[in-house]
Amino acid sequence: MSRIERVRVVVPARDEERLIGRCLESVHRSVAELAAAHPGVSCSVTVVLDACRDDTERVVRGFRGVQAVATTAGAVGAARALGVERACRGDDPDRTWVSTTDADSVVPAHWLTTQVDLATQGYDLIVGSVSPEPGDLDPRALAHWWARHRIGEGHAHVHGANLGFLLAAYREAGGYEPVRRDEDVRLVRAIRATGRTHLATARTQVTTSGRRVARAAGGFASYLQALPGAGGAQKTGLPPVTPMTVPET
């Protein structure tokens, strides 16, 4: 039996009308797999609309079962913190698991199930891996990215697009700091410093956008822009997404 009773998925979004639909579709598939694997574990999805000026809110509200929370913070750390606070209100911190990804990312169907399985084994923090969408990058830039990232068990990378943690561990570490960048690195460092059990794994690998126009300075897009060959053409445009229900189980 899992020690986790509920899972809270938190997704910050700033001007993500073109990509968040695909993100929520993938989360929907992961929620469905979790419900099949762990029928006693409930799950909800919260999107934090962070200073959005486009139609991100309209797209999000097309997905029934997704809670939308708005803020004018304009800082990803503050947005993630607000999402955790709203999603987990009243929850037992020792039995609640928080999973975070980004609005421009696609999670695998087993993403939540694997995190809950690992939490059941006693881990309080799961640091997942990410890789850029291959079609978004020039081949030279993509080759340089893979040359710098050896993804496997015990990897050294931290990405807010693929984190999972026990709510009690999060609160003990002080939560997300209201910063504009590196909130994920700071949180992981703080949780590890408490002595909580943690694991860096590639078993829950997430695919994220290879765009080079950053929503947050110094973030993943800025890193990709600095790669050799990154000045090449980038694919633009995505087919429309049909909203679906992301059920709370």
Description of the structure:
The chain is α/β, with parallel strands linked by helices. Helix content is 32%, strand content 18%. It has a single domain, classed as Spore Coat Polysaccharide Biosynthesis Protein SpsA, Chain A, CATH 3.90.550. The strands form two sheets. The protein has a seven-stranded mixed β-sheet with strand order 3-2-1-4-8-6-9, sandwiched between helices. Strands 5-10-7 form a three-stranded mixed β-sheet. The radius of gyration is 17 Å and the shape is globular.
CATH architecture: Alpha-Beta Complex
Strand content: 15-25%
Strand order of the largest sheet: 3-2-1-4-8-6-9
CATH class: Alpha Beta
Q: Please tell me how large the radius of gyration is.
A: 17 Å
* CATH topology grouping: Spore Coat Polysaccharide Biosynthesis Protein SpsA, Chain A
Let me know the average pLDDT: 86
Given the helix and strand composition, which structural class is it? alpha/beta
Largest sheet: 7 strands, mixed
Low-confidence stretches: 230-249
- The SSE string, one letter per element, is EHEHEHEEHEEHEHHEEH
Number of strands: 10
Work out the count of structural domains: 1
N-end to C-end Cα span: 17 Å
Assembly level: single chain
In one word, what is the shape? globular
Q: How large is the count of helical segments?
A: 8
Write out the CATH superfamily name: Spore Coat Polysaccharide Biosynthesis Protein SpsA, Chain A
